[in-house]
Amino acid sequence: MSYKIGCGKADITVFVYGKGMMGYGMHPNVAKSVETPLSVRAFVLQDAQANNKVTMVVAEICFYTIALKDAVLKKLQSEHPELGYTNANLMLSAQHTHSAAGGYSHHILYNLTIPGFQPLVFNKIVEGTITAILQAENNLTDAKINLINGEFAPHLPIAFNRSMLAYNNNPDVKKLTNKENHLAIDRTMKLLRFDTPEGKPIGSINWFGVHTTSISNDNTRLCYDNKGYAAAYFEQDIQQQTNNQQFIAAFAQDVAGDVSPNYKWDKDKKWMRGKYKNDFKSAQYNGKLQYQKAKELFDAAPTATTINGNIDTELMFVDFSQVDIDRQFTNGVAGLHTAPAAQGLAFFMGTKEGPGMPAALAPFSKAALSAVKFYEKTAFKLFASRKIREDIDQKHRAHGVKHLFMESGIGKIWGTHQIKNLVVPGFADLSIKYFKELDKLGFTKRTPWVPRILPIQIAIVGQLAILGIAAEITTVAGQRLNQTVLSILKHKGIQQVIINTYCNGYHGYITTAEEYDKQQYEGGHTIFGRWTLAAYQTKFKQLALQMLKPANERQIPNLQPDIFTPEEIWYGFDEVMPQKQTANT
């Protein structure tokens, strides 16, 4: 089957001097200059027969937010209704650089270290995304698609599992040593090549899971990091080779939750780094490895799998704070649920490639949080209503061993809604200071701190299915989710499933239940509890089963996410809320 395919690219280089970057959650990690430009790339794939399409976008930011996609979609629908955009056929993803401007979420937790919502940044990303999409629409041409997979050689220092304790706790893996952590990941790159019927290449997109964190949290320069360097090398190569300056290549994220590009201990900085002490050289080196693999696969793609078949898309919003979980994904245990979002102490402690709060606070925090949990489950319940007692039991059953430092779903820190009265002084941690100020201003009770209603998406292109998830997922969790969906969609002719992460929104991590129990960074940031992966499997199973039916017979729940008004958004401590907002904010 022939398709119509168009590719587009636009600039999204923007920052407000001295405001925070998004990714590390560190207050000194602010933008002061530009090392590389930042871009957004769009690929419109249209089914020539049924006139269905999917538009896949990859941006050089940390992640898209619910608010960003809502703004992009509303503007496309109002200004270009003839293009027929819906939530289902628009898949917005990010390559997850931690060195791009922040401030484009409406949720206060993701704006805490910026600090505040930044309309300039938000609008630039919206405008750039739409520009790239429209350019791709204008470039539509008859084309064919080839799919190819290939593994990185074991000796190449491309990616490493950073949470081996958690990985080895899975019963379905071969136990590996810390020195074998390069084998505890999916080392496969998946690549789509787009050509005209005459064989002229017009674009390519690939998926490989590795964090875009070659550049550390002491950086102050905007940079697209390893995946951006890979894309730049690839585009320059093919453009020179084919004399086609319009060729566009994107390096998207696959399963990357526990996968790092860093493998050397820096004795001076006290964290993990890449091949070189200079982070930018490390990012270029890692990017070159990704580029070389992509080029190898790209050259071999014309003789690999040809994609044939219709395009089909669906998206479903899910309230992940209250999912009734299918016992198929809990070893037969019935009656399990997720719970309102909560970040564990392990999340705030950071990782070996990006340390978080001062280590000296950890013992005190653990003791205090254990005391809060004991109080809630004993003395507090004596005087609570039945509903509150049930909520407490459900919360602790769902979150299990996690030390609940922040209950972002219900607006608590260290077990209290009265954040301004926390005994921890603001000088001990700047984030605590900011939260105290936000509580005094009323923002901690005005809106949820993180999203609870999030999208899951399936885009089918011929025999390939691409899953869009608003999270980062660990290696084994990704394998399990992949198999869940493939076992259903194989009845529709699907032969391969690819997981597209940091897509359409963001809420943190997805680990397996066994990994969660070890409460490393990823488990601490699995905010809906021990059964978050099982919740995703439950809901993707539901969506995949609907996609086995004809489109006019499907029943997709009509739940919608929270969208805030301008008056509900926090613009920062030193900012006055603008009297008039554009439609994008």
Q: Would you kindly provide a written description of the structure presented here, covering whatever features stand out?
A:
By secondary structure, this protein is an alpha+beta fold. It folds into two domains: 3-317 and 452-553, no CATH class; 321-451, no CATH class. 30% of the residues lie in helices and 21% in strands. The protein is built from 15 helices and 26 strands. Strands 1, 3, 4, 5, 6, 8, 9, 11 and 15 form a nine-stranded mixed β-sheet that branches. A four-stranded mixed β-sheet has the order 16-22-23-25, covered by helices on one side. A three-stranded antiparallel β-sheet has the order 17-20-21. The longest helix has 22 residues, at 279-300. The two termini are 41 Å apart. Residues 576-585 have low confidence and may be disordered.
First CA to last CA: what distance?
41 Å
In helices, the fraction of residues equals 25-40%
What do the pLDDT scores average to?
94
Q: Give start-end ranges of low-pLDDT stretches.
A: 576-585
Shape: globular
- The proportion of residues in beta strands is 15-25%
Integer-rounded radius of gyration:
23 Å
Structural class of the secondary elements? Answer: alpha+beta
Summed up, the domain count is 2
Distinctive features:
single chain; 4-stranded mixed sheet; alpha+beta; globular; 585 residues
Topology:
Layout: E1 3-11, E2 33-34, E3 39-47, E4 53-59, H1 66-79, E5 90-94, H2 108-111, H3 119-138, E6 141-151, E7 160-161, H4 164-167, E8 188-195, E9 201-207, E10 221-222, H5 225-242, E11 248-252, E12 259-260, E13 264-266, E14 271-273, H6 279-300, E15 305-306, E16 311-319, E17 343-344, H7 345-349, E18 350-351, E19 354-355, H8 361-377, H9 379-382, H10 386-399, E20 404-407, E21 412-413, H11 430-441, E22 453-461, E23 464-469, E24 472-473, H12 475-489, E25 496-500, E26 509-510, H13 513-516, H14 521-524, H15 532-547
Parallel strand pairs: 2-10, 4-5, 9-11, 23-25, 24-26
Antiparallel strand pairs: 1-3, 1-6, 3-4, 6-8, 6-15, 7-12, 8-9, 13-14, 16-22, 17-20, 18-19, 20-21, 22-23
Helix pairs in contact: 1-3, 5-6, 12-15
